[in-house]
Design a protein that fits this description.
Helices cover 53% and strands 1% of the residues. It is mostly helical.
Length: 464
Amino acid sequence: MQNTLLPRLPSADFLKKYIPIAVAGFLLVAINGCSPDTTEVEPEVKTADKYSSEVAEKWAALTLKLTRTTPGFSPPVASRALGYAGLTLYEAVVPGLPDYKSLAGQLNGLQALPAIEAGQTYNWALSANAAQAEILKNLYPTTSAANKVTLDSLKAALRTDYAVEEAAEVVERSEAFGKAIAAAIFEWSKRDGGHEGYNRNFPTDYVVPVFNGSWKPTENGRVNPMQPYWGKNRTFVIRNSVMPLPQPLAVSTSPTSQYYAQHLELYSKNKALTQEEKEISIWWADDPSETFTPPGHSYNLARIAIKTAKVDLGKAAEALARTGIAVADAFILCWKCKYAFSVERPYTFVRRAIDPNWIPFWPAPPFPAYTSGHASQSGAAATVLAAVFGNNFKFTDDTHVSRIRDTARNTDFKARSFSSFWETAEESAYSRFLGGIHTRQDNDTGLKEGRKIGQNINDLAWTK
């Protein structure tokens, strides 16, 4: 009888057919398991848009501090420094932005800049860090010893953060490129006519023209006006250098003239300011002796937008470059217009034609009225910022919230919210009307010219 408990052995035909296949499969598995994986994993190339905006934000903040605390950085001088600082940041990272182009060959007299090594890896945060440290040392050489320590400390702290996981050669290569960019741009800056302008804000060789309706020294007794030759400086953008000068209204004391009507409107409003209008006026005053100046306010709006939108390093660099160039060119063209026409300030006309005892809400600054510097640079900045962040961009301007109450004018510094950048430009311009410093022609023309300046900057080939 057959034993059903014993295992049944495979037949001879089964063994002959399947054993060779099993042996071959075993050998294949053994070979593959023992052989090394020769597939190479390419290291990730980190483009500039993969970094946060931290480096840009922190250096922008320090730039503004240097502007506020370094002697001689009047609004025109400050605007120039912001232009070169923003451009340097952009050029230090633009090779790491595949869709963007350098501005070398597009700006006025800037033909070439140092190039990166082909096929090599760069840390763009380190490049930006080194570039900003280098350019600011050159632009603010007269700043305090304490500020220089702060500058070195920021550079070291950011270097530590971004170099910790990088190979030594990548760190060295990245920083060398950033420094080279800064050095090249600084050399280019020396030939623009504004180099070391902080040493000559009030040149004594300028002869103030005298004619009917001409600018007169301010109430504080300063005889020499600020930076009378600034309008001769080289602009960043070539098209801005050839813009025609807008003609001012004809001077007239006739009550039926536009000139008289605009001054009467200003005088009447200045005598009946609401509390909110006072707040608007002091918010945008940006007194150079206490703040980082009007162009610094615009640069800070760019910094606020960067933080609000949470953009990357590449977009932050673009925003600061456009804004810096905008305020720099706006001050050159505005100052060119001021000294071409030497239009009197409202306090001069009002006192001789309307009210001899009038005191404006703000004392007049020491240079001609037409066109408004606030309006020109705010209009230019708003135009370029809208190109980066959009026409409808909501944000809160907290630039001056840390300032103590203006007791002389019984007004606090309260943050202001906006739905677009152009709203800030219009309010900045209007604040000068409220302050009794500028008529509507000064502001309206300044905004119009500022928009043109900003559009010429936007028309550059920023992308490929």
